[in-house]
Specification:
The chain is built from two helices and 17 strands. By secondary structure, the chain is mostly beta strands. It has a single domain, classed as Porin, CATH 2.40.160.40. The longest helix is centred in the first third of the chain and has 11 residues. The radius of gyration is 19 Å and the shape is globular.
């Protein structure tokens, strides 16, 4: 989801299912089977283009652990529809992390993020949705321990979601990050930029169980010395699964598991990703 966080056989299966059995649109499932609402805004590494509905709040916790680099990251995100207009969504993310490349350091808080997203096209019941996001990065992490950028920054992301058929939904992301006064452990500063691209395929085995395949690529600058940066990149393909528990109160709990596998410049790296979401009504105005 956010810059650096973090099976070809699965891809072939999903593409095969795309052309198997002509069936109604995904939005029709949501409108006819209200007692079993489908899982929608719960991707792991690729952002989906669906804002929170009016009167619905979501709490998301994640944890990832990479085996070779020894990096781990945990996060907590909360997303709220803006009062009076669900097309505007507000949220924040707090991060805990440890960078294995910084020997002798311990885990701690990373940079925090404030998010605003606008539902420009579509809704969760549309075939096509587009919901650009603008985020402000707050330098709460320790640069010396590899847990922060040392400067406030901006990030923009352009998520697009398209229902390919009743069983398969695709998501695309393209975004960029700019940190005007990034800092390294040696206290040198420089302006840095980064780019992120992602693509995800979701197969609805049924409304409560989804198979997932996400691919993400990040290219970013790091500070070398004052005014000097160097480029790095990371890329992962990540098969996963998510499932839902739906309650009569409107509460939906969505756990999930994925296995990120490094490709390209990240080949040889792999890890585990754990996801948990709680989504429920608040106040007395749930629903649009």
């Amino acid at each position: 989801m956010i810059t650096r966080l973090p099976s070809l056989l699965t891809l072939c299966v999903l593409l095969g299912l795309l052309f198997h059995n002509g069936v109604p649109a995904f939005g029709q499932v949501q409108s006819t089977v209200r007692e079993e609402p489908p899982i929608q805004d719960n991707s792991f590494l690729v952002e989906e283009a669906y804002n929170q509905e009016r009167g619905i709040v979501q709490h998301i916790s994640t944890f990832s652990r990479m085996w070779n680099s020894k990096d781990w990251t945990s996060s907590f995100t909360q997303e709220w529809p803006a009062p009076g207009n669900w097309r505007h969504q507000l949220g924040y993310t707090v991060v805990g992390m440890h960078s294995g490349s910084y020997s002798g350091t311990t885990g701690g808080m990373g940079d925090a993020i404030l998010n605003y997203r606008y539902q420009a096209i579509g809704t969760g019941e549309s075939r096509v949705a587009f919901s650009p996001r603008l985020s402000v990065m707050i330098p709460t992490g320790d640069v010396g321990a590899g847990r922060g950028t040392g400067s406030a920054g901006l990030q923009a992301n352009l998520p697009v979601s398209i229902v390919l058929n009743r069983r398969v939904v695709a998501h695309w992301n393209a975004g960029s990050t700019f940190v005007p006064h990034a800092q390294n452990a040696g206290h040198f500063r420089a302006a840095t930029v980064g780019y992120n691209f992602g693509q995800g395929l979701i197969f609805l085995a049924n409304p409560r169980i989804n198979l997932m395949l996400e691919t993400c690529f990040n290219k970013f600058q790091s500070v070398v010395k004052s005014g000097v940066t160097t480029w790095s990149s990371i890329a992962y393909i990540s098969p996963g699964v998510r499932w839902a528990y739906n309650f009569r109160s409107g509460l939906q709990i969505v756990p999930g598991l994925a296995v990120p596998i490094g490709i390209g410049s990240s080949a040889g790296e792999r890890g585990v990703f754990v996801y948990l979401s709680f989504e429920h009504p608040f106040g007395s105005s749930a629903g649009r």
